[in-house]
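Spend some time on the protein that follows and explain the fold to me:
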Amino acid sequence: MAKICVLLCFILLAASGFANVSGSETKGKKVGIYELKKGDLSVKFTNWGATIISLVFPDKNGKLADVVLGYDTIKEYTNDTSYIGAIVGRVANRIGGAQFTLNGTHYKLVANEGKNILHGGLIGFSDVVWKVQKYQNEGDAPHIVFTYHSADGEEGFPGDLLVTVSYTLLGDKQLSVKMKAKALNKPTPVNLAQHTYWNLGGHNCGDVLSQYIKIFASQITLVDSHLIPTGKFASVKGTPYDFLKPKAVGSRINKLASGYDINYVLDGGAGNKLKPAAVVYDKKSGRVLELSTNAPGLQFYTSNALKDVKGKGGFVYEPHAALCLETQGFPDAVNHPNFPSTIVTPKKPYKHNMLFKFSTKAPYAS
């Protein structure tokens, strides 16, 4: 069954409309599909939401599969409500009450999840057309650079913001993601996240509950019933949130209401240097994903809200069909002075780096 599954992934990828660079008009702007390839790693993107739409690499037997959830057409991405593969912002995750006060000025944002704002509001960075500033699919480091100018007042956020996201293939099956933002005239909160849904068995190979994960975090930020942080921290030890040693994603998921959706406080804190964030291992395929970042937090999400979502090739995604590893600043940081600041000023730009390493080398003993 596994062999059939990965073969179907490959055939569907080759047959889909994303096989070549293409384009269409969306909201009056050009939206295209772009591929980066280095060795046997291939990644496709669209400038709608600066989105990863496919990532293909071989399993331990050399069989190719697309390991990210997604859709067959640009139109489906424009109608997506799950942020699949996209860059989310201006502020990823949640801001309680969709409001905050900065330098004495109170800002009311556009709420899109009850009274709160999630992933930037009704029209966040995942739902806009980004400019392709650079695109080079040759040489030792194939790369693509997307930019977006977020206007003062967009979704209620203050100040003009120039955002840049660079995707680069490095070394042996490595994907570098660098997110930058510059406040042009006013201080403003910025917290970008990359929202790809990963399934190392293949996007159409069922759930991720048997895949193993290790998260380099000893604490989580506690949240209320609406997933808004309380401002307090808690140790993961002795709880279902403890992945300091690798465990199957589904080993204790039944102890939670619907699955994982929590911010981990990464060991090592914030800074400019990369530190390990997570390792995911699928024993069936042998595929491994290692993630490092300079961000202080990691939102671990097991796609709890996916339900009857028609994806690539007509495959239907259900809860726990994938997992998201969203490195980030802490949620609702603008309302918690004890959290690392997410405020960006004209003199203090935003820099957020991620490095994904893909392989079939078992990261720990079975």
About this structure: The longest strand covers residues 29-38. The helical segments are 2-15, 74-78. The chain is about 5% helix and 40% strand.
